[in-house]
Design goal:
alpha/beta; Rossmann fold; OB fold (Dihydrolipoamide Acetyltransferase, E2P); 8 strands; Helicase, Ruva Protein, domain 3; 12% strand; two-stranded antiparallel ribbon
C-alpha cells in the first residue's frame, strides 16, 4: 500500500530518500522526523574494525600470482577508478577465492583491505543460514547496506558454499530458506555499481559444489585458485613466520621444507608456534633446530590422526 504524505516544516526534504526510516504522525501520516538507520547487531559485529586490518602483502608468503590477481581485481578499482574510466572498461566487481583450507584466502582478503585502507566486513556462510523465513536474505541486504555506508569497503564471505551450493529440486523447507538467501546474494551482486567503492570477495574450499548461477560471468570477474604451497612458497612462508622468532643459528630450513610437503600455510604457522612451545618446555629462550623438527613431527602426526578419523566416516 502506498500513501502520499506531507512533511513537517522542520523536516528537510532533501534528506529523505527511498529506504529512509521516518516517524509518522499516527492520525495524518505526516512525516515528523527522520530516524537513524538501524543496523542488525549481528551484521554490525561482522565489521572487524573501522580501520583496515593490520596485515600487508609482506605478511603473505608464496602467493605472488594471487596477490597480482587481487590487486587488479580489487585494489586498482578502489584506488584508481578513473584509470578504468579513461580506458573505457568496467572494473571488476570482485573475486572468488578457492582452494584447500589454510592456504591463505582469508589472509589475502585482509591484506588487500589494509592496502586499500578499506573497511573490512567478514561474514561466515554458515552464519547466514537462518531458521526463520527471510532472515538470511535480510542479513545479506544489511551487509551490503553497511558496506555502502562504510565505503570504501570490502565484503568477504568465507565458506560461501554454505549458502551457494547446488540447488536441489526435492529441497526441504530449510534448503528453500538457504535458496532464498542465495537469491538475495545474487540480486545484490547484480545490483552492484561497477564504479562503486564496494568490492566483494567470496571464498570456498569446494568450488565443485557451487551453484552455476553464482559462477556465471558478471558476478565474479576473477576466479583465483589457492593451491597447496610448493617448495619456494613454503620457504617464503617459513621466513615470514620465523622473522620475529628468537632462534639458534644456523637453522636447517631446507630440511623443514622437504618435511612439510603437502602442508598448507596454516600448518607452517602452527609448526613455528609449536617449536616455540618446545623451547619453553626446555626452559630455553632460544628455539633450536630440534624444536622445529619435533614440531613438524607433531603436526604431521596430528594430521594423520585426523585423516584416519575422517576416513572412518566415509
Amino acid at each position: 500500500m502506498e500513501y502520499v504524505v506531507k512533511t513537517m516544516q522542520n523536516v528537510r526534504k532533501n534528506k529523505i530518500f527511498p529506504g529512509t526510516n521516518v516517524a509518522l504522525n499516527q492520525r495524518s501520516f505526516t512525516i515528523v522526523d527522520i530516524l537513524p538507520t538501524s543496523i542488525d547487531p549481528h551484521v554490525k559485529g561482522m565489521e572487524l574494525s573501522d580501520t583496515p586490518p593490520d596485515i600487508s602483502y609482506e605478511d603473505v608468503g608464496g602467493l605472488d600470482y594471487q596477490i597480482q590477481e587481487i590487486r587488479e581485481a580489487v585494489e586498482l578499482p578502489l584506488l584508481k577508478p578513473d584509470l578504468f574510466k579513461k580506458i573505457g572498461i568496467d572494473p571488476p566487481k570482485g573475486a572468488l577465492f578457492f582452494g584447500p583450507p589454510g592456504t591463505g584466502k582469508t589472509l589475502l582478503a585482509k591484506a588487500v583491505a589494509h592496502e586499500t585502507k578499506s573497511t573490512f566486513i567478514r561474514a561466515i556462510g554458515s552464519e547466514l543460514v537462518q531458521k526463520f523465513i527471510g532472515e538470511g536474505a535480510r542479513l545479506i541486504r544489511e551487509i551490503f547496506s553497511l558496506a555502502k555506508k562504510k565505503a570504501p569497503s570490502i565484503i568477504f564471505i568465507d565458506e560461501l558454499d554454505a549458502i551457494a551450493a547446488n540447488r536441489m529440486e526435492d529441497a526441504t523447507s530449510g534448503d528453500r530458506e538457504v535458496n532464498r538467501t542465495l537469491m538475495q546474494l545474487l540480486s545484490e551482486l547484480d545490483g552492484f555499481d561497477n564504479r562503486g567503492d564496494v568490492k566483494f570477495i567470496g571464498a570456498t574450499n569446494r568450488i565443485d559444489i557451487l551453484d552455476p548461477a553464482i559462477l556465471r560471468p558478471g558476478r565474479f570477474d576473477r576466479f583465483i585458485e589457492f593451491p597447496l604451497p610448493n617448495e619456494l612458497a613454503r620457504e617464503a612462508i617459513f621466513k615470514i613466520h620465523m622473522r620475529n622468532l628468537n632462534t639458534e643459528k644456523p637453522l636447517d630450513i631446507k630440511s623443514y621444507i622437504k618435511l612439510t610437503e603437502g602442508k598448507a600455510g596454516s600448518n607452517i604457522k602452527g609448526i613455528c608456534t609449536e617449536a616455540g612451545m618446545y623451547a619453553i618446555r626446555r626452559n630455553s629462550d632460544t628455539i633450536s633446530n630440534q624444536d622445529f623438527l619435533n614440531a613438524i613431527k607433531k603436526i604431521s602426526d596430528k594430521d594423520k590422526t585426523e585423516q584416519n578419523k575422517s576416513d572412518l566416516f566415509i
